[in-house]
């Protein structure tokens, strides 16, 4: 019988946790409001409030054991939110790199720019497709670009380690299709010369990218003439004239991709249909927002899996800490709880009161853990080892309100699991047994 009862509790706990995971913040507020209404409007709720108030008033006498719950849950939430902030920051940086009114065109089955190739003839036909915006001179706003990799010394490395940097050969139209790119130091490169402008993120990651410095790319010397900022993934790249990059890397006259400015976001439909329906072309067009969001999916998923796995392992320890603490707390109050039940208090108010105590401690631990994660890691600079299959991507960790809510949900879930079994034991223990054990 006891086995069936415990099995039922486990199944109930699993169902409630499954629903809790999908609950939005406003749903949690609604549940809290219903609980408060029950505690103040109904007799059994008033009983739960009385038992809970007595338990909370004795917390000062149990600071050490209560701190075990708070600190344990704070650690779980802090680590979880910090790791998930990496995924959020990476995805946000990639999403900021695209928009709905620009499109990128690549060879049909290409997963990224590196594996794509476009000929000069392809680019001419892409320029003539419907939906492409034009400048004041009536010229299509299109930047045909080459993407290559270069090994550069990693900043701060004492062993001379090198990392992969993404070099993008662009045309003058690149600044028109990406108006967020601004030169913040020095000047832009001159067409036909081996000159580079480098992103702020690349400057933070690699040595030797100061204005006026010389570095070797494609076995040729290049001069850094400027630094640009864009607030997205482009900040991790080095830009130069596409024709010069192609010459240095022996790429001929082709390009890897073409980025175009659309007349408006709705123009992507006609633009993509015209290109994909052209039998002379084997290309695929998508908005840059969709492209960069797709690029972020795999890395974001990996980072989230790591964060949730580590958080789950730590949560197990926190649950056992909460179980031990609450079983001890219930045992110390066995006579009090037995007396209350003897004078007419029902089992449900006792269960709610014990779980409410654990939940409040869990909420405190979750709030502390989330605040520490936000304080230490929000905006913290990080980088991938090989973003986009070519170079490192610099990004900032982002502790968003959604992540903080996710951390609070984990904290409350741990408190729920840690308090459920002690609460049920307190409410179901026979009065005579409880008095004898006390």
3D shape: elongated
Main pleated sheet: 10 strands, mixed
What does the average pLDDT come to? 84
In total, how many domains does the architecture comprise? 2
Distance between the termini: 25 Å
Strand content: 15-25%
Number of strands: 12
Percent in helix: 40-55%
Order of helices and strands: HHHHEHEEHEEHEEEHEHEHHHEEHH
The secondary structure category is alpha+beta
Instruction: Tell me the Rg in angstroms.
Output: 30 Å
Separate helix tally: 14
| Low-pLDDT regions | none
Task: Present the secondary structure layout.
Elements: H1 2-21, H2 25-41, H3 43-57, H4 63-96, E1 102-107, H5 120-127, E2 142-153, E3 162-170, H6 174-177, E4 182-186, E5 195-199, H7 200-205, E6 214-217, E7 220-229, E8 237-241, H8 242-248, E9 257-261, H9 268-276, E10 283-287, H10 288-332, H11 334-342, H12 347-377, E11 381-383, E12 394-396, H13 401-428, H14 431-437
Parallel strand pairs: 3-8, 5-7
Antiparallel strand pairs: 1-9, 1-10, 2-3, 2-9, 4-7, 5-8, 6-7, 11-12
Describe the structure.
The protein is of the alpha+beta class. The chain has two domains: 236 residues, no CATH class; 173 residues, no CATH class. It contains 14 helices and twelve strands. The strands form two sheets. Strands 1, 2, 3, 4, 5, 6, 7, 8, 9 and 10 form a ten-stranded mixed beta sheet that branches. Helix 2 crosses helix 3. The longest helix has 45 residues. The two termini are 25 Å apart.
